[in-house]
Design brief:
Helix content is about 55%, strand content about 10%. Among the domains are: about 170 residues, Beta Polymerase, domain 2; about 80 residues, no CATH class. The strands form three sheets. An eight-stranded mixed β-sheet has the order 1-10-9-2-3-6-5-4. α13 crosses α15. The termini are far apart. It is α+β, with helices and mostly antiparallel strands. β7 and β8 form a beta hairpin. The structure holds adenosine-5'-triphosphate (ATP) and magnesium ion. The site of adenosine-5'-triphosphate (ATP) has 13 residues, from α8.
Length: about 450
């Protein structure tokens, strides 16, 4: 075991001692605490960092706990049997405890370190020279290890760059994180434009944290956002899908989506949707708003939300617009519908990738709408047994709430679900008799039939 020293660079921090802040070990996940102690026992310095510290200081429950350390990925891998190294762009170690994953990263140096390497290599313990930029200034790889103060400055926002140690329970601040938590500001560390160019996803993160924490985006951090939004075109659609889910499942989907509609980066995630909801009073626009609200309420009481439901709601206004545009033409409605579904999904896939299982489920939610509305004896039981019934029923209720007249279909399905077998049979029977009159009328042969 190595002797443990304070990490170099710590002298640049403002330090808050244990009795000057509200963070306590008991609010931190036990597993994260275990990792912090274990790394300490092995002679490394390890800190809770990022959202864990920020959210605890704000009195919120962190979504996950991230740890930063001077141990290198291979050290961490060796110490924790339940760990694996992931990522190429950033090497990160995931330590798994059942369903919880603790993410551990090694202190990283700023990218300029590459240019200073000859002089600084021994001091900075840089073992691996693995950093690369694209011609637009974007970071492609970032595995140059550095000191804690350097690690702090390459994080995105000041409020995400606070460090907590279980060694003496101090909080360390290398930027203006503590001040910005107090004045409720999202402030980029360093030159905002340069930092957005390095990683354009930071623009989306600024909007996300602003909505999630109800913080203002500080003026200089906000200024380049619309001007540089186009840089998001260079981000893989898979990363944009991940980011879209983080944006909408953080518990503040309504406010987050409002920011995405207000600032240009939103167009690079949900372009077709943002265009299609221009008329905020249209039922499809209202449905999306209600679905976002519903998402927030579900998450607030610990329920889950599926990407399939979210994307079904996000693309509903686009789907309706496409269907309406085709309606004047002489085409069968079923065909218009299925072409609109395919076109709306393939268009969205040019923005964010969506795993196939989710687009398939979104389609099923849409397909079930028509069947739930029509309700006839033949389809009631199969609709009810459909794995997507519950989601489709919730969707149907939102459509009614948004102002669509669906002939009380929502209430019918609510009654059906709470009814016992006998009541259900009676409901189906009634449907059948009212539909049968129309259906069973013998079809008279007309002249046109023979043509
Ligand atoms: P939350 O987990 O609540 O979404 P978080 O701040 O913990 O918020 P993570 O995505 O978990 O965000 O990242 C952990 C930390 O890693 C961040 O707080 C930040 O310090 C750093 N980080 C993450 N993404 C970036 C990025 N694109 N650029 C710079 N630093 C980043
Ligand atoms: Mg986090």
């Amino acid at each position: 075991m190595k002797p443990q020293n304070s990490p170099p660079g710590i002298e640049n921090a403002i330090r808050l001692s244990r009795d000057e802040h509200c963070i306590s070990r008991k609010n931190i996940s036990k597993n994260a605490v275990k990792v912090l102690y274990k790394l300490g026992e092995e002679g490394f310095n390890a800190y809770l960092v990022g959202g864990g510290v920020r959210d605890l200081l704000l009195g919120n429950q962190p979504k996950d706990f991230d740890i930063a350390t001077d141990a290198e990925p291979e050290d961490i891998r060796r110490i924790f049997r339940n760990s694996r190294i992931i990522g190429r762009r950033f090497k990160i170690v995931h330590i798994r405890f059942g369903r919880e994953i603790i993410e551990v990263t090694t202190f990283r140096a700023p990218h300029e370190a590459l240019n200073e390497i000859a002089d600084d290599a021994p001091r900075k313990r840089i073992k691996e020279l693995d950093s690369a930029h694209s011609s637009s200034g974007m970071i492609l790889r970032d595995n140059v290890y550095g000191n804690i103060d350097e690690d702090a400055l390459r994080r995105d926002f000041t409020v995400n760059s606070l460090y907590y140690t279980v060694d003496n329970f101090e909080i360390l601040d290398f930027s203006s994180g503590l001040n910005d938590i107090q004045s409720k500001q999202i402030r980029m560390i360093g030159d905002p434009e340069e930092r957005y160019r390095e990683d354009p996803v930071r623009m989306l993160r600024a909007l996300r944290f602003s909505a999630k924490l109800k913080f203002e985006i500080e003026k200089e951090t906000r200024e380049p956002i619309n001007r540089l939004a186009h840089l998001l075109e260079s981000i893989s659609s898979a990363r944009l899908f991940d980011e879209s889910m983080k944006l909408l499942t953080g518990g503040q989907a309504v406010d987050t989506f409002a920011l995405l509609a207000e600032f240009d980066p939103g167009k690079y995630l949900f372009g077709p949707t943002i265009e299609a909801i221009e008329d905020a009073e249209a039922p499809a626009s209202k449905l999306l708003q209600l679905a976002l609200k519903n998402t927030d309420s579900r998450l607030a009481i610990g329920k889950s939300v599926t990407p399939a439901f979210l994307y079904a709601a996000l693309l509903w206004p686009v789907l309706q617009k496409k269907i309406n545009m085709q309606q004047s033409e002489e085409q069968n409605p079923g065909q218009i519908y299925s072409e609109a579904v395919s076109s709306c999904i393939s268009e969205q896939l040019t923005f964010t990738s969506i795993p196939k299982r989710f687009t398939a489920a979104s389609r099923e939610i849409w397909d079930l709408q028509n069947r739930l509305e029509r309700r006839n004896r033949r389809n009631v039981n199969s609709c009810f047994a459909h794995p997507r019934f519950r989601a489709a029923y919730d969707f149907l209720l939102l459509r009614e709430e948004s102002g669509e007249n669906l002939g009380e279909a929502g209430q019918w399905w609510t009654d059906f679900q709470i009814g016992d077998t006998k009541q259900r049979d009676e409901m189906i029977e009634k449907l059948n008799s009212s539909n049968s009159r129309r259906k069973r009328r013998p079809r008279r042969k007309t002249n046109s039939d023979s043509h």
